[in-house]
Amino acid sequence: MRKIVAVRRVLADMLGHFYDDDGWSMASHLAITALMALFPFLIFATTLASFFGAQAFADTAVHLVFDTWPDEIADPIAREVVNVLTVQRTDLLTYGVLLAGFFASNGIEALRTSLNRAYRVTETRSFLYRRIQSIAFVLIATIGFVAISVLLVLAPLIGRFAVAQAEWLAPYMGTITLWRIVIASAVIVLGLIAVHMWLPAGRRRFVQIVPGIIFTLIGWLIGSTVFATYLDHFSSYVTTYAGLASIMIAVVFLYIISAIFILGGELNASIRRYLEARARVGS
């Protein structure tokens, strides 16, 4: 009975604070900012990768970003992303690449703002520190994507060598598509850990962010599946928005996953508040 009461209190606190703190508006802000930051980030990363000789990065980056999205949502916007990334740009290794990196960091700042509200903390770090940290996140993500791109190119060679040395590994090697999905999922989990640990003000232990991360992953899986099913059977987006259908679908999808992401932070904060209240009563 006590556990049921605890769950009810935590959920009531989570949903109540989400509503009172304009969670739906923050989800909208985060969704639009994420969409606006996506193209600059991919342009920045692709240009930087080509500078270091990773010419196949564009295709890999698209897979890493969109392989975990439902096909009904990912396919239209992925095609547009490929069109943007395959355009030759000679200016982006000078001022353009810096500008793209700056705009990409805006997406990190939107994550920070939403998590600060969810964790109910006040930001005390300077604007310069926060912006440098956001740009560092973009650079680390870019370097990680480039490294993954190289590994995926080498993966078939490594796989064949491993099978030649140990034939029993053959059934476990899978395909390059499977490896892309596994790696993309790992990137999502590591990204969630990083943003919950270091973006919001204050300090949190790893164990304190695990419930929100699990909630976010499960919520994303359910939300994306339900939305994809809706698009597949009941959607009137194409007839309503015509040529804007793909971008509207992307915005709504990002809005859904943004709300779930913020709720994950709210859950962590609510659990922490409940445990602190229990500790005070016990003392």
UniProtKB/TrEMBL annotation:
Look up keyword Cell membrane and say if it applies: yes
For this UniProt record, the keywords arranged alphabetically read as follows: Cell membrane, Membrane, Transmembrane, Transmembrane helix
Q: Which residues form a coiled coil?
A: none
Per the record, the major location class is: membrane
Q: Which domain of life is it from?
A: Bacteria
From the Swiss-Prot or TrEMBL record, state where the protein is found.
Answer: Cell membrane
**What's the short name of a Pfam family annotated to this entry?**
Virul_fac_BrkB
Keyword Cell membrane present in the record's keywords: the answer is: yes
Membrane-spanning residues where?
34-58, 92-111, 132-158, 178-199, 206-230, 242-263
Membrane topology listed for this record: Multi-pass membrane protein
Q: Which GO terms describe its cellular component?
A: plasma membrane
Q: Which PANTHER family match?
A: INNER MEMBRANE PROTEIN YHJD, UPF0761 MEMBRANE PROTEIN YIHY
Report what the protein is called: YihY/virulence factor BrkB family protein
